[in-house]
Request: fold
Amino acid sequence: MDEVKIIDVKRTILEDNDLDALNLSKELKNKGTLLINLMSSPGSGKTTTLIKTIKCLEDKLSIGVMEADIDSDVDAKKIKEETKAEAIQLHTGGMCHLDASMTREGLSYLDKHDLVFLENVGNLVCPAEFATGASKCVMILAVTEGDDKPLKYPLMFSICDVILINKIDVIEYFDFDMAKVIENIKKINNNAKIIPICAKSGEGILEFSNWINDEVRKWKEEK
Amino acid sequence: MDEVKIIDVKRTILEDNDLDALNLSKELKNKGTLLINLMSSPGSGKTTTLIKTIKCLEDKLSIGVMEADIDSDVDAKKIKEETKAEAIQLHTGGMCHLDASMTREGLSYLDKHDLVFLENVGNLVCPAEFATGASKCVMILAVTEGDDKPLKYPLMFSICDVILINKIDVIEYFDFDMAKVIENIKKINNNAKIIPICAKSGEGILEFSNWINDEVRKWKEEK
Reply:
C-alpha cells in the first residue's frame, strides 16, 4: 500500500496569554486558592464527575465552580442544586475555550475559596493551548471515545496532571483497551496520574478527591 | 434556589473566511465535485461512519477523503486500507478546525472526484464557525455524549444538513432520550435530516448514502 500523503496546513490563529495566566496564578497563590482546569470532549462526564468530587470534599474545603459553555446554564444549575459549592456560569460567546482574562473575570464573581474548579468548554483541542491561570489541569477521557485519543490530541494529554478514564462501567460494550490507552498516554506524559472512574456510580472518585485535597494542602503550605 | 449568575465573556478570536469559502464552493460547482464537511466530537465515530458510507457508494461514485487531525495519520490509513477512496491526511498544526484556505490546499492534492468528504477535527465548537467551502454539512452525535448537546453546542446543530445519531446499539446503557434530543434539535434546526445509525453494524448507513447520492446528482444537475 502507498504511504498516506500528509500535508501540513498553516496555523492561522495564535494567542499567547501565558504571561497573563502566570500573573493570575500568582494572585491565586497569594489568596490561597487552588484553581483546577477540568477539560474533556463534549459529553465525557465533566459535570457529573465534579458533582461527585465536590460531595467528597465540600465538608473539608470551601469550593467555587465556574462552568464555561457556549450557551445554556444547565451545568451551573446542576452544581448549585446538587452540592454546597458556589457556582457561576460563564458564557464564552461562541468561543471554544477560556483564556486567562476570561478566567480572571469569572473569578471576580466568586467569593474567596480554598478550591475553584473551572469546567472548560467541551473540546480536546483549544483549551489545551490556552493557559487559564490554573495551577493544575485535569482531563477526562470516556471509554466511549476510543483508546486512540492520546495519539490524536497529544497536547491535551501532555499538559494534564491527572487523566480520569470515565464510564468504565460500560467498557465491555466498546473496543477500548485500557492497557493500550495507558501505554499511549505514558508515551506522551509519563507524569500524569491516571485514574479509571465511573462518575455515575462514584467509583474512583475518592482517589481523585484525595489527590485534590493533598494539592490544596500543598498549595497553601507553599504560600 | 437563587438564579444562576451568568457572565458573558468576550469573544477575542474571530476570522471571517466566508468569502473564501463561497469562492471555493463555486469552483467545486464548476468541477462537479460535491464537498461534504463531516463534524463531531472526538470519538463519535466519524471514520467508521465514513468507511461504511464509502463502501455503499464507491461503485457508483468516485470519492476522495481529506482526514484532518492535529496529529497522527491513523484515519487516512484506515480509509485507504478499507475502501477504494483516495485519502489524504491534513495536519492542522495544532489548529482546532479547518478553514476554506486549508480545505483548498487539501483539495489540490486530490484528483477530481464526484464526492469529497472532509473529516474535520473532532470538535463541536470551532469547525461550526469556519466555513470550508463545503456545500453540505453533516454532524454525528453519539448517544454516549448525552441528549443535552444541542443545547450546549447550538451553532453546530444549526448549520448541519444531516445529523447522524450514532452508537444506537448501546443506547440502553446511557441516559439518552431519543425523543428529547430530536425535540432539542428541531428547536434549533427544523430542516436537518436526522438519521439514527450504528456505524459499527451499518444500521442507517444506507439511508445516509441514499441522501448523499441524491445530493451528488442534484449538485451536478444544477451545474
